[in-house]
Amino acid sequence: MMQPAAIALGVPLRLLAERADASAAQVIADAQVGDYTDLEVLRAWAKGLDVVTFDHEHVPTPHLEALASDGVACRPGPAALMHAQDKAVMRRRLAELEVPCPRNRVVDSSEAVADFAAGAGGWPVVLKTARGGYDGKGVWVIHNPDEAARVFAAAPAGVALVAEERVDFARELSAVVARAPSGQIAAYPVVESTQTGGVCTEVIAPAPNLDPEMALQAQQIAITVAGELDVTGILAVELFETRDGRILVNELAMRPHNTGHWTIDGAVTGQFENHLRAVLDLPLGSPSARAPWTVMVNILGGPAPTLYDGYPHVQARDPEVRVHLYGKSVRPGRKVGHVTAYGEDLADVIQRARHASEWFEGKIGDGESHEAR
User: Fold this and answer.
1) I need a surface site. Which of 6, 57, 272, 277 has the fewest CB within 10 A?
2) Residue 42: burial class (beta carbons within 10 Å; 0-12, 13-18, 19+)
């Protein structure tokens, strides 16, 4: 999804892909297949590049430090990216910045989890691997010490676990900003995101009925984190809006993020273009929304083996809906694309986006009416 923005800006991309059929390798001409955990592969691939950036946070920090010592500009840099790679590091730094977060503690035993639970409002608590988790992976809701013991037994060796209070939240929000090395920042409208089974399924921009002061606070948190951690590029701050009127930081992502996909069609400047502008230290584009409401719904793999079969119906029914398919093989529950609708009536926009997504997923078909979920 960065390639169209790069073409428009006249910026050539070079890709290090894990497989020849990876989504990005299907659209970027200069694509090389290699293992990003192999430092020599990384060094050879990065030779001659002006800037290196990322679509995930899992490149080993020492490798990025080695590239930086070779004179390669890594954006975001390894010191910033560490806070998206390691939840324990992130929680410690956010506490130093007095950014509101759920109560948390690094734990090394089921007894430590029980002690944390006793001081954090009781069971259940949430256990997370400090490194490597995403889309619900590496996250467990724990109701007693026995369950905690089973998690420790199954957790990867050498990976720290972080215990967090289970937040009583009304909904999840996301504040996405772009930051350039010059310090310029563009803040997108705060959005509401819906997670199903740990996977983002829907985003509404802007978040409906969000108190303006809370929206401003969410944006200010993202701006503060981006500046204090020296983030370059897109930063997504995932937040809880609690039932008692607070917002707490859940996760950080230093890359174009699923909760920002709505911006491709719904903002004056999409997150992928602003990410490119930021890492190249170009002036940032406007993050303003193009319409009063934009809704992005992910397409998850379902019974339909060929997603392209969904085009005739979806495109004929709603010529204004925008479809983005990722070129991925279809597996149940896998994010294989998304659809975006926008307009002035929120209920109508939601219905249109959900219908298109559910048609691609095979949840509805000929002769079936859409039901709001």
Assistant:
1) 6
2) buried
Beta strands 125-129 and 161-165, pairing class: antiparallel
Strands 335-343, 199-205: pairing is: unpaired
Degrees to nearest 5, angle at CA 87 with 184 and 233: 20
Query: What three-state secondary structure class fits 324?
Result: strand
Going by C-alpha positions, the residue among 82, 164, 80 that lies closest to residue 120 is 164
What is the C-alpha separation between 4 and 10, in angstroms, rounded? 10
In the chain, at which residue ranges do the beta strands (DSSP E only) sit? 14-17, 30-33, 51-52, 73-74, 104-107, 125-129, 139-142, 161-165, 169-179, 185-187, 191-196, 199-205, 233-242, 247-253, 293-300, 322-325, 335-343
What is the percentage of the chain residues whose pLDDT exceeds 70? 97
The token pair that represents 329 in the structure block: 């093989």
Q: What is the pLDDT of residue 306?
A: 83
3.40.50.20, 3.30.470.20, 3.10.120.10, 2.30.40.10: CATH of 3-80: 3.40.50.20
Residues 280 and 234: beta-carbon distance below 8 Å: no
Could you tell me which residues come within 8 angstroms of residue 166 by beta carbon, excluding any fewer than 6 positions away? 124, 125, 126, 141
Q: Looking at residue 319, what is its pLDDT?
A: 97
Q: Which two tokens stand for residue 205?
A: 């921009």
At 19-54, the pLDDT tens digits run 999 999 999 999 999 999 999 999 999 999 999 999
pTM above 0.90, yes or no: yes
Residue 288, both tokens: 């303003």
Contact 290, 202 (CB under 8 A): no
pLDDT tens digits, one per residue of 53-94: 999 989 999 999 999 999 999 999 999 999 999 999 999 999
3-state secondary structure 143-175: CCHHHHHHHHHHCCCCCCEEEEECCCEEEEEEE
Residue 114 has pLDDT above 60, yes or no: yes
Q: Name the architecture of domain 103-165.
A: 2-Layer Sandwich (3.30)
d(CA 127, CA 16): 33
Could you tell me which CATH number the domain at 169-361 has? Answer: 3.30.470.20
Domain ranges of the chain: 3-80, 103-165, 169-361
